[in-house]
# Entry
Amino acid sequence: MGYMLIYRLADIAPDTPTLPRDPCVYAVLWFRGGRPVPIPRMLGVDYRGVLYVEATENLRRRVVSDLLRHLKAARSGGKPRANRHALVVVAEYFGLLDKIRDEELYITFKAYPDTLTAWRHGWAVLRTYAEHYGEPPPLNIYFDRKQLLVEPAEPDPELLEALGLRKANRGQALGVE
# Structure
């Protein structure tokens, strides 16, 4: 098993080949000064700086068309809108857009062969995170009832390691690009 790369959101261009158009589970991470920002949680501290985890059927569209575009609109003073990316809505509501700069947001992801598999692994990672820290990642406050109906897969060990939910084996690292 290898390691998962991390990309700075501010460096992702609309036509980037870095992000696949495949079903994926992705996590948005908070880094400051090249290091993850520790986030106090109910049952411990998340030293990987995980802000948000989601599954999507097309990662490039979700990140470029939704997340990046909606972050830009929110930061430029546009009216708050309920149909913005959930991360942006929550960050805007709680005033976090003033605290977290665009260049501090990073993304890591893992692709899956189909949307249902991505959803099942995404839900499994969210459930494992919540069990580990006593609550979901701080910007994951929206839960769709459909998520509760999907039987989660066994948590993906590579995703769990990337999010600090299992200790990495010797010689493995989380690469930053």
